[in-house]
Design brief:
The complex is a heterodimer of chains A (about 240) and B (about 140). With about 240 residues, chain A is an all-alpha fold. Helices cover about 65% and strands about 0% of the residues of chain A. Chain A contains six helices and two strands. The longest helix of chain A is centred in the N-terminal third of the chain and has 36 residues. Chain A is elongated and about 70 Å long. Chain A starts with 9 loop residues before the first strand and ends with a helix. Chain B is mostly helical. Chain B is built from five helices and no strands. In chain B, α1 runs antiparallel to α2. The chains are: A mainly alpha (about 240), B mainly alpha (about 140).
Chain lengths: ~240, ~140
């Protein structure tokens, strides 16, 4: 059909409030398009696992090397805020799953409702994260304004780690836990922000009627991305807030 | 696809709107049950961290997290009903991740850990250079 480049495969719209989907010209069938895109996206998610995996490997190595540093560092975090954020992300993962389901069944308003709740979850998560970072900044455990300043050779100290209250005194390499904490949660937070942006884009397309039972692929893929963000946090929460 | 090979709680199977064969629509009830399970397991994670199991605390925390991750992957991410190739691609990332962890921690386990390692010493210091010289008695 589409080999010659003149005929496109079109998935009809299920109703007047939806628009038909034209299968990309380099695919022969809707099924081929769906399967190829899904495979590519799972492959991308596998690279995401490996990206965070390197950081988790660093965590385990340093945790095994300096367990006291990590336990004391973990105590400086508020586990209640961590648990709250875990619940927020789990709830938002559920609303996202429900949003994808609503898209699969051509329920436009329900898709917008659940995707909107998911974005709300992302916003709540980042607001809580902001207050956590601010508290670390105030105690000099992560001084954000000096984050990218070079190591001070004259005082043999890291400019971003001041520990005003001396809470980390007496353990080796006291900055290490906060370096790992910031790196992992900041990269995770970046994923939260990107995910929220993608969900807003999905909502725009849904409002225009582009996604329905015949073609919900982008909603499905953004959903997978959002669940991955949740997946990473499931491991970050016990490792950072409840350091074993 | 495998969308029709399972039984419980998927009322939308007969919906002609889902005609394309690769679609799988899970029931809202199932999603809610998974959410409840995930929240309960989060509570168990916090409770378990309060008890001192010694070296087992890490294994317990990671075990519970793995169960939670499996629930998210299988149900929220629908991998349970996805194609074999997608399962292989995604789950293989955890296989290679385990290789990374095993070899990294093997390095840690077989290192010499004493005060010597932690002393700050620049590579060009006299002490370092001296240590690289062959011992006079060997000649």
């Amino acid at each position: 059909m589409s080999h010659d480049g003149h005929h496109s495969v079109v998935i009809p719209a299920p109703g007047p409030e939806f628009v038909p989907h034209t299968v990309a010209h380099h695919f022969d069938t809707p099924v081929q398009e769906f399967q190829s895109m899904k495979l590519g996206f799972w492959l991308f998610l596998a690279t995401e696992i490996l990206l965070f995996g390197g950081l988790f490997a660093a965590y385990f190595y340093f945790h095994e090397s300096y367990p006291e540093t990590f336990r004391l560092g973990g105590h400086q975090l508020d586990w209640k805020l961590g648990a709250l954020n875990t619940s927020v992300l789990l709830l938002s993962s559920w609303t996202m799953a429900m949003g994808v389901r609503s898209s699969q069944t051509s329920q436009k308003q329900k898709t917008l409702f659940f995707c909107g709740l998911t974005v709300l979850g992302a916003v709540i998560f980042m607001v809580i994260k902001f207050f956590e970072y601010r508290a670390k900044n105030e105690h000099g455990l992560i001084v954000f304004s000096e984050l990218f300043h070079p190591y001070d050779l004259t005082t043999n100290s890291l400019p971003w780690f001041k520990d005003y209250d001396g809470v980390m005194a007496g353990v080796p390499h006291p900055h290490l836990f906060f370096a790992i904490y910031l790196t992992m949660t900041a990269i995770h937070g970046l994923h939260v922000v990107i995910g929220a942006g993608l969900i807003l884009w999905i909502m725009k397309g849904t409002a225009k009627g582009r996604f329905h039972a015949g073609y919900y692929l982008p909603v499905d893929l953004v959903g997978l991305y959002w669940h991955l963000v949740d997946l990473i946090w499931i491991f970050l929460f016990p490792l950072l807030y409840l350091v074993p | 696809m495998s969308a029709h090979s399972h039984s419980q709680g998927h009322a939308d199977h007969g919906n002609p709107a889902l005609q394309m064969g690769h679609h799988h629509v899970s029931s809202a009830k199932m999603f809610f049950n998974v959410l409840v399970a995930l929240l309960i397991l989060t509570g168990i994670t916090v409770a378990a961290s309060r008890v001192d199991f010694g070296g087992a605390n890490m294994l317990i925390a990671m075990g519970i997290a793995s169960i939670k991750a499996s629930l998210v992957i299988a149900f929220f991410m629908h991998l349970k009903w996805d194609t074999a190739i997608n399962k292989i691609v995604f789950l293989c990332s955890f296989l290679f991740l385990s290789l990374l962890f095993i070899f990294t921690l093997a390095d840690h386990a077989t290192r010499r850990w004493d005060n010597e390692m932690h002393t700050v010493r620049t590579p060009v210091s006299n002490e370092f250079v001296y240590r690289q010289q062959p011992h006079p008695e060997n000649h």
